[in-house]
Write a structure and sequence with these properties.
Blueprint: E1 2-5, H1 7-14, H2 25-37, E2 41-45, H3 47-50, H4 59-64, E3 67-76, E4 79-87, H5 95-106, E5 110-112, H6 138-157, H7 162-176, H8 183-186, H9 195-216, E6 221-223, H10 239-249, E7 253-254, H11 256-262
Amino acid sequence: MRVTFDTNTMDRVARPERFLTEPSQTDYIRIRDALRAGMVKGYFSETLVTLEGVEKKDRVAVLGSTQVVSDSRQTGENVIAITIGLKQDRNPLHPKFSESVRAAQSIGMRALRGPARMVVGFSWKDDDGSFYEQVEPIEELVRRREIASEIAAAIEMRGLGRAKGLSLGLEFSKRAGASGELWLQGLRRAQTTEHKKVVQAVAEWADGDSIAAHVGYGNDFFCTHDQGNGGGGPLTFDAVNRAWLASTFGVSFVTLSELAARI
């Protein structure tokens, strides 16, 4: 059984001892033990750190600081290699996220890579291969990310996922009369009263990409307690869009208690 855990469920199974007062704590322990035993393979989206790992108070500044950087070097006669990437002014990951990720890794969970996007895609440094799920051969990883990209595009066509943040960034740039900047750079132009909209848009972006990665890797269940009640219009996890994801892409949503009952 392959399960993708949302942010609001991952820590409960990675560190159930932190949730002693919750009535479903025994379910969390049951799932943790199943993960340790290999009965369940657990995963989380890279967006846990690349997007949600940016503290809410910093999201406007961090995402708005995005710059495209490039480097070129000659690698042979008449051959020049050009590397293009993103640079942001990021603080170190908050300890609460670092501790949660380490706890998840300790019971075998690994991160899923999301949609492969030019220029506006984020990834996490994984020098020792302990963060991401290792996929071989490379053609298989490419296939999974291509599927994730297709799912993310379909989600965005409904005005969900990354589309909400993209719309805000373009709106703020247009209002300021700024042209030629990335939509992420437009987010830095949010007024103080608009910061909450950006925070919510980033959370929705994370949700959309999490689902896209889940489908791309072909996992069995998506475990979340999010019902899409965060406000700001339609959301990926609201009832209507859950039904659409289930019927169109076969996404099976479960709560922790529902998952525990299947073990």
